[in-house]
Design goal:
single chain, 358 residues, mainly alpha, 3-stranded antiparallel sheet, 66% helix
């Protein structure tokens, strides 16, 4: 069997020191071959699959843990979205049912213990936005921020993962490509993905092992080079988006006034806030009733449906809150009304008795 046939059928070691191809001499050293061995390109599909799993993993954690708040956020967002397509009566009934369910959820997860431990947890929840406390209304918001941090840490860690995988400075890969494009240079062969290498293989003939070195072409590295250039720019773009999104949500959650402003915006549309006392009640509604988790759920419903749905939902919940907190009084307060009835009994007892008989 000729050397050419052996090259096509054997198993070889591929080396990234392909510059020795044009040299008059090649180091005839086994240690050099082992150090120059390329081992990453066979595992490219697996590393890409593992990277995809790392991007999905924070979402899996969110789906597993957000149910601990006592609310199925996915279903209620789906129900809110479906209310847009029903009849007016069905839509009104669905909004009222969601308002009733959210009201029961908010009232159920109130703090009922007032000992030292409960007060310490409450104070810690107000100071640390990443502390999950269901009784203080910070479970979903703290968990959501932790998931956002995981997404950002994941995309930054991808650069270091590829550094270890390819044993190169992958962090600078995209900048090198941009510099080359700006300078007008042609797309030269990347030292990280050589297309031409030296291949070592051995032939056993009558107990003699002969070691051969031939020139090999790796066409797969043409695709690998383009794939990892795209991944570098994609990771950079995702890292910027994750960083901006994390800062945005930290601003919305840390500064409590944002909850009041969010609720006030929609209640103003429905003309619920007429005077100063209505605005004061709106503040109590946002900060003491909805709290962080309630406002977070409202934001999620608004993001997954329309402003019309969240406007009607907050309007219905605010009406229920107002009826419970400040029930509508009659024209006279109870104490004055009772005095008026007693006076009427004394002045005209027959008329009063006659009314009772009827």
């Amino acid at each position: 069997m000729g050397v050419d046939a052996l090259v096509r059928s054997g198993k070889f070691l591929f080396h990234k020191e392909y510059s020795h191809i044009n040299s008059t001499e090649r180091p005839n050293d086994r240690k050099w071959s082992q150090e120059a061995e390329i081992t990453y390109y066979q595992w490219v599909p697996l590393i890409l699959l593992f990277q995809a799993f790392l991007f999905k993993f924070p979402n899996v954690i969110w789906k597993m843990l957000n149910g601990g708040s006592g609310l199925n956020l996915d279903k209620i967002c789906k129900l809110a979205d479906e209310t847009q397509w029903g009849s007016p009566d069905d839509r009104k009934s669905a909004i009222e049912n969601m308002a009733f369910f959210l009201d029961r959820w908010l009232l159920t997860h109130r703090q009922y213990k007032h000992n030292f431990v409960a007060r310490a947890k409450a104070k810690a929840s107000r100071l640390v936005c990443f502390l999950c406390n269901k009784r203080e209304g910070t479970f979903l918001t703290a968990l959501y921020l932790c998931i956002k941090v995981c997404f950002l840490a994941n995309v930054i860690g991808q650069f270091f993962l590829l550094n270890a995988f390819m044993a190169t400075d992958y962090n600078m890969y995209g900048f090198e490509f941009i510099s080359m494009m700006n300078s007008g240079e042609s797309m030269r062969e990347s030292p990280r993905f050589p297309r031409v290498t030296l291949c070592d293989f051995q032939i056993r003939q009558l107990q003699n092992i002969q070691r051969w070195t031939v020139q090999c072409v790796l066409p797969i590295n043409l695709f690998n080079e383009k794939i990892f250039i795209f991944l570098w720019f994609w990771f950079f773009f995702i890292a910027c988006l994750c960083g901006f999104n994390l800062l945005k949500w930290m601003f919305l959650i840390v500064f409590k006034r944002n909850n009041y402003m969010y609720v006030k915006k929609y209640l103003t549309i429905t003309e619920q806030l007429v005077n100063a006392s209505d605005k004061k009640m709106c503040r109590r509604f946002a900060e003491q009733y909805l709290r962080d988790d309630g406002c977070f759920v409202a934001r999620m419903i608004g993001m997954n449906s329309t402003d019309m749905v969240i406007t009607d939902l907050l309007d219905c919940m605010f009406r229920n809150f107002r009826l419970r907190e400040e029930p509508k009084h009659q024209e006279f307060p109870e104490d004055e009304e009772s005095k008026l009835l007693d006076k009427e009994k004394d002045t005209n007892p027959l008329a009063f008795r006659g009314n009772n008989v009827q």
